[in-house]
Amino acid sequence: MDATSDDLQQRQADEIARQKRVFISYRKADAWAEAQLLYERLANRFGSENVFLDARNLQPGMEWLKEIKSHRASCDALLALIGPHWVSILKDRDQEAIVQPAEDYVRFEIEYALKPDSGICVIPVLMGDDVPFTGEVLPKSLQPLTKIEVAQVRQKRFEEDVADLISRLEAVASQQPEPGQRLVTEEQADPGEDGAKSASVPPPDTGHFEDVLRQMVDEGNLVVFLGSRLTAGQVGPLQGPGSKEIAATLARRFDLDPAGRDLPKVAQYVYVRQGSPDLYRELRNLLTSECEPGPVHKFLARFPRALKELGLDKRYQLIVSTSFDTLLEQAFDAEQEPYDLAVYMASGRDKGRFVHFPSEGVPKAIAEPNTYTKLPIGRDYGLQRTLIVKIHGAVDGSLGDYRWKDNYVVTEDHYIDYLSRSPIESLVPVQVLDKLQDSHCLFLGYTVHDWNLRVFLKRIWEGRIEARSWAVEPDPDDVDKDLWSLSNVALYAADLAGYIDQLQKRLVAHAREYRARGR
Predict the structure, then answer these.
(1) What are the chain's domains?
(2) How large is the average pLDDT for residues 423-444?
(3) Average model confidence (pLDDT) for the chain?
């Protein structure tokens, strides 16, 4: 009986070891040799495929930064190796960045892992007998390290200390849920008023709303994507036509069967058979009709002021929109909330570029996206003002002396030309691209059935978003769920107006708790 019990415990320990994924963070000028030795011991226990050390895992030809980010995001535990020179190197990097900005990737790795929702267990490991390490010498973003029980690996007790570290990793592994699982209590399983439209796609629960608000309010690290279907499930014609309604209208106008035809396909037919003037004239008529911003637009426009009214600091947002209309801008204007605008130009003198319209100042064509740094996004990816990015163009309009016309990425040929540019840095401004790749995302008014969205996801994130992200659709099916999951996006079923109403209500409670925590 005892032998069987021992065998079972050993099998369980071996299973934990196989599943544990460990990322070793270190500075080469501080603990290079020690990191190599520690890697050997951990790889023997957990398997080399589950332990990442850049010097061992990166091969010639690999994009090293992308590989590091990918492994960092998928690990279960990060070991921050801190040797005798670690703090002094950190200070030197900070000083050098004042004159010559440069990324401190070791600091970035640890800051990412310390985020409350990262799901990564961070263990500071002091490499040596007398390593200086106190909160007073650390920047604010790294001070949580000093509140975590440190491990120590000393020269004379190397094997014993490493064995203790392995035991600690195994203990952490046994307490963690499987990747992608959520432990939901009965109190958290709150279906809300909307209910699920699909038996396999859940409605948003309390945990989901808290995850979203944590990124919006606590971290300021949520990018909202607005699709052209924000009106799906809504009542009344005043909130603007979505892509489905535009496609149906064009199909009727030009005697097409609208069944099974999405907007790019219908627009392509009209463009080829009738010519671009007919297509653009109909789009203008549809998109300039009397419409009002919907609940999603209004919530986002009021969000900075709402935080201030709740006693919190304002948070500004990066909002990416595929809509051609100006409803979001109208909502911000109505709230008198400043914002910058970046619009992709599909026609005119700046065709193939984004143009930046600052809240104050003159428009500027972004001729070199990979070097343009005038957008209101800081080095730490924080927003100084809300930035609205319209990635598919915009209905005819003007800002100041700058005017545009027939500015739509709408036909199949448009999307193929737009999305096949290489590299992506030649199209999307680098500040936006970096912010997208470092953020959580909330997709509203999208359906992942749209092939052009899937291509965009592939181009920006190589198909899979590193940070945990979410999508909300009014009537999703199993295919939607499976397609979103391939991009690491959790799908929820909810009417968008009801979803925003729930989010607004929970914002008040979240703000109260946030203040109580003294954040």
Answers:
(1) 2-175 (3.40.50.10140), 206-236+292-409+420-516 (3.40.50.1220), 241-290 (no CATH)
(2) 90
(3) 81
